[in-house]
C-alpha cells in the first residue's frame, strides 16, 4: 500500500483580493535529492516522515509535484530595504498552501528557491545549497533556543547549478511558518492597493494571528499595538542570545512575531554592540546594538501603513499611530531586562539592575570577552578565563553577589541554565558544517552540529567542544547576502 504523507492543505491566503498574490506552480528541477529532513518537525505537523522521504514525497519538496489540495502562489509585498522603499514579493519562493495539523494549527508551507515568479525582477528565482543549509541550521537553533521563528522541514538539492560569483549547487528549502505576512505586505497594500484591500489584509491577519481582537472597538489599532509588543519581545530575545539578523528590512519582519529570512545573520562571539557580519551593511545599520532601534523604525512603517484604518479623522489616526509607536522603547526594555534578570538569576527587581547589567556588558566589551561563554561561566561558577581575575570583574562580581544576597533564594543555577545557552551555532562551526556538505557532499558534520545546538540548555559533556571560540576570534567574520 502506498504511504500517505498526510498533507492537509487549506488555501486561505487565496481568499484575499487578487493584488496580494499570483497563482503559479514552482518550476520543476532536474534531479531532486533529499539531503536534510526534519523528522521532529514533521511529527509536530502530523506528517508521515516515511512517506515524505519516498521519491513521491521528495517530489513535493522540489516543486516537481504539487501535493493534493495545494494551490501554489507567490505573495506580493513591498518593503524598506536599508531605508529605501521598494516593490518586492516572492521572487524565488512559492507558497504551496497552509497545512493544518490535528490540533488545528495552521502552517505556511513554502518552497524557497523554487524558480522565477512575476516578482523575481532580475533574479533567477533559485537558491544555492550553502545559504539554504545555513537557514536550516540557524532557524532550528533559534527554535531550540525558545525564540519564535520560521522552521525548516527539508532541504533538497536540485541537480542544477546556480550562478552567483561562481557556479554553486542549487537547492530548495521547505520553510514552515505560522504565516509569511510581513510589515512589507501592509506597506504594499497601502501603496498599491485600495483602502478595502488594506482592510481585507488587516481582517485576514487578525483572524489568523490575533482572533481575540476581532471584537475590539478599534481592532486595527489593537493589531498595531499587539504587533509592536510581539516584535519588542522578539528583538529582546535576539539581544539576549547575541543574535544578529543582518537584514532587518521591513519585508523581513513578520506580524506574527516570528524571526524570518536567515540571510547574512550570525551569532556574536566577542561582545561588542557594533558587531556586524553582513558584507553589504557598510554603515552598520543592522549592527547588534542597533537592532532594537531599527525594530522601532520598522514598526513605524507598519503604523504608517495602517493609518487609513486607525480613524476616519486623519489627524487623530496619526496621533493614535504615534502614541502606539511611542510605547515600543519601554516595551523593549521591559522584555530585555526581564530576560537579563533571568540570565543573572535575579528573581526580583531592583532599581540598580540596569546598571549592573550594563557594567557587565561594558567589561565584556573592554576585555573582548565572549558573550555566551561569560554567561555560561557565571551560570556554572567556573571562572577559567584571566578576565575573571581582573580587579574590574572582581569588583563587579562583589556587587553581583551582594545583589544576590538581597533576594530570597540563592539557588539560581537551575534557572540560569534555562536562560543561558551552553552552546550557540558559532560561525566557524556553521561554516565547517556547510563546507563539508557543499564541497564534499558530507552531511554528517551538519547533522552532528544540529544534534548539539538543538539542545542548547543541556550543559552536556559532548557540548563542551562546541563552546570553544574560533582560533582568531578577533578577526571579522563576514556573511554574504548573495543568497
Ligand atoms: P531577501 O534578501 O531573501 O529577503 O530577498 C529580498 C527580495 O529579493 C525578495 O523579494 C526575494 O524574493 C528577492 N530575491 C532574492 N534572491 C532572489 C533570486 N535569486 N531570484 C529572484 N528573486 C530573489
Ligand atoms: Mg526577505
Automatic annotation (TrEMBL):
Coiled-coil portions: none
Write down the EC number.
2.7.7.-, 2.7.7.108
Location of the active site: 251
Keywords from UniProt, A to Z, are:
ATP-binding, Magnesium, Manganese, Metal-binding, Nucleotide-binding, Nucleotidyltransferase, Transferase
Q: Which organism is it from?
A: Ureibacillus thermophilus
Q: Which residues bind ATP?
A: 89, 91-92, 112, 124-125, 175, 182, 261
* Function description: Nucleotidyltransferase involved in the post-translational modification of proteins. It can catalyze the addition of adenosine monophosphate (AMP) or uridine monophosphate (UMP) to a protein, resulting in modifications known as AMPylation and UMPylation.
> GO MF annotations for this entry?
AMPylase activity; ATP binding; magnesium ion binding; manganese ion binding
Names of the cofactor(s): Mg(2+); Mn(2+)
- Where is Mg(2+) annotated to bind? 252, 261
Name assigned to this protein: Protein nucleotidyltransferase YdiU
**Reaction(s) catalysed by this chain's protein:** L-threonyl-[protein] + ATP = 3-O-(5'-adenylyl)-L-threonyl-[protein] + diphosphate; L-histidyl-[protein] + UTP = N(tele)-(5'-uridylyl)-L-histidyl-[protein] + diphosphate; L-tyrosyl-[protein] + ATP = O-(5'-adenylyl)-L-tyrosyl-[protein] + diphosphate; L-tyrosyl-[protein] + UTP = O-(5'-uridylyl)-L-tyrosyl-[protein] + diphosphate
Q: Does the keyword Lipid metabolism apply?
A: no
Q: Pfam families of this UniProt entry?
A: SelO
Q: So what family is this one in?
A: Belongs to the SELO family.
